[in-house]
């Protein structure tokens, strides 16, 4: 693309670094901002830099939080014996929106994926095992996506827990195998948490 | 959506104000930035605020420019007797990328559209007529999209030029009627500039 302005070219370039945003889409978004009051752009920029500069992850569950310990972990009404293991904070948001779950979470930050060079050490697995060792957690619910990587990750964690006094379960799948958790409808997802099955059973089933 | 962080919620909200970016996409983009080095976010924010604060439009053709008069208008090798009338700076970029055109441009900033409340006074039509009155321009090439609004705008400008010594033409359409200019392939678009026809002929044809 042939830009008549370095400022424009630079803005389009930076915008197109976002995933799924090509040069043409980036140009469309940037030109949209130019047509809006300057405040619009400033609010967007500030919101992003502010988040990036001040972002904090809960010391216990690794969820994004504005406080040291997130609202979920510090809520005395939640069942601290139950921990739902998820990939990503989007999964926490998806499960929270079902209002069907009253336990805590553990955000792994991804799945084991040799193809993408993501090993166990890149995920918050050690801190999960430590949470279990502290003794308060009685059950881990695996809620990773049901892909090869998800299954591998579940199994890896399961092996790390050997000898520890904790039950493991996986959420029931009312949704198609391979579907992403975050796109499931709330009813199905809520049901699948309630109908979770012992992890051992899920190994036999597959 | 249930956000665990006000900072996150705010960033997602501002991102989702962009056209075509829903809440889920906004969340995905924001979480991507969180996984990247902080510099990435700062470069994006700065590029956007910088552009918005310092953006300048060429005094002559209304193209985006970092200087008072854009590089195209101030290029002595370009044919100043030829002015191509376009909607938007994206059209300038599309035509420039064909390397088939050596004249100048005039960016209207849109099309006349009673449905969207855009009248002639919202577009840079007066300044176009003034450019013609100055006497150097011998031919205007209408390169608006061939929609009802595009045709209305062409005709409105054509009427404003009555009595002035200027030829009008429209770009030849090798591409389907109704297609957006900026998505045309470069060869077709370049050809359509070279094969432009007198505007009067295009009225008769339609
Ligand atoms: Zn927490
Ligand atoms: Zn110019």
From TrEMBL, chains A, B:
SUPFAM superfamilies: Recombination protein RecR
C4-type zinc finger locations on the chain: 58-73
Keyword Metal-binding carried by entry: yes
GO biological process: DNA recombination; DNA repair
Keyword tags: DNA damage, DNA recombination, DNA repair, Metal-binding, Zinc, Zinc-finger
Ranges for domain Toprim: 81-176
GO-annotated molecular function: DNA binding; zinc ion binding
Domain of life: Bacteria
UniProt-listed CDD domains: TOPRIM_recR
Key word DNA damage present: yes
InterPro entries: DNA_Rcmb_RecR, Rcmb_RecR, Rcmb_RecR_Znf, TOPRIM_dom, TOPRIM_RecR
Transmembrane segments: none
Family membership noted in the UniProt record: Belongs to the RecR family.
Entries under NCBIfam families matching the protein: recR (TIGR00615)
Function, in words: May play a role in DNA repair. It seems to be involved in an RecBC-independent recombinational process of DNA repair. It may act with RecF and RecO.
Protein name stated in the entry: Recombination protein RecR
Organism name: Flagellimonas flava
Lineage, opening ranks: Bacteria, Pseudomonadati, Bacteroidota, Flavobacteriia, Flavobacteriales
